[in-house]
Amino acid sequence: MKPILPPLNALRAFEAAGRLGSFKEAAAELHVTPGAVSQQVRLLEDWLGAALFERHNRRVALTPAAKTYLEEIGPLFERLAQATAQYGVPKAVTRTLTVSALATFTLRWLVPRLAKFRAQHPDVEVKVDTSNEPLESLEADCDVIIRGGPDTFYGYSMRPFLSEERLPVCSPALLQRVPLRSPEDLRQHTLLHTSSLPRLWPDWLSSARIPALKPAATLTFDHFYLTLQAAIDGIGIAMGPTALVSDDLAAGRLVAPFDAPRLPSRSYCVYVPNEKADDELVGLFCAWLEREGRASMPA
């Protein structure tokens, strides 16, 4: 009679979580989300008809029976890995992940970090489609969609991964030519605008309690990434989103002459179609976005 085996993905999740004592650490090792590990563990618990873990805040502890079970299956995974290694490294299976993301976000945040994802997952081909279309208007079939939020859309799961605020930024060379000691000194500068975001400067000036300030000049661009590039080139001062200029601030290409006031802004969120919610590659990419989002925010 053919032996009955438990679901192997669920068994692998249980082994990692039991060995590490944490769903979060198991998720990092398996390159999936903590939610995916939890889901697989519950699947195995349902299959066995018994609880495997006791939940304690951020940690988990094995039940006595599960501890014995882990001691039995742990060596089996090691033997399986050793047996597989005798046949050499398996050929890489390339899979394409289609991502739709906002143009400025893609240029200034996603692209500089994609090399790290590709180095970690050389078997995955990432196809990025830049679009500012609202999510409900997208016609392309995408695995992951990055837009502002948080918003709720029928048929999609959502989670924020990167927050930001907005404040004035400019090149260090510009400040050397015309110093900024207080917000009132903006009268001597060119303020850079983006046509699709006309309220940024008026709202900031109102928050700074100088709503009637008249700058030396203004310059308006049709794309936000052009506005930010003009600031880097020393043409004027832009309202910079902290998430998208963090690399420039760290590298010294831009400086923030005033730490306050800061305008609140929507977060960047990842939206996943419900039919792709259990896709392991989608979960892996979303978990990577969350890690990069945390790492890019100032301490």
From TrEMBL:
One GO biological process term: DNA-templated transcription
Q: Where is the HTH lysR-type domain?
A: 6-63
Q: Which InterPro entries match?
A: LysR-type_TF_proteobact-type, LysR_HTH_N, LysR_subst-bd, WH-like_DNA-bd_sf, WH_DNA-bd_sf
Which PANTHER family is this protein grouped with?
HTH-TYPE TRANSCRIPTIONAL REGULATOR, HTH-TYPE TRANSCRIPTIONAL REGULATOR TRPI
Q: Which UniProt keywords apply?
A: DNA-binding, Transcription, Transcription regulation
Q: Where are the transmembrane segments?
A: none
From the Swiss-Prot or TrEMBL record, give the protein name. LysR family glycine cleavage system transcriptional activator
The chain's coiled-coil residues are none
Q: Which PROSITE patterns match?
A: HTH_LYSR
Database matches in NCBIfam families:
PRK11139.1
A Pfam family of this chain: LysR_substrate
Q: Which GO terms describe its molecular function?
A: DNA-binding transcription factor activity; sequence-specific DNA binding
Question: What family classification does the UniProt entry report for this protein?
Answer: Belongs to the LysR transcriptional regulatory family.
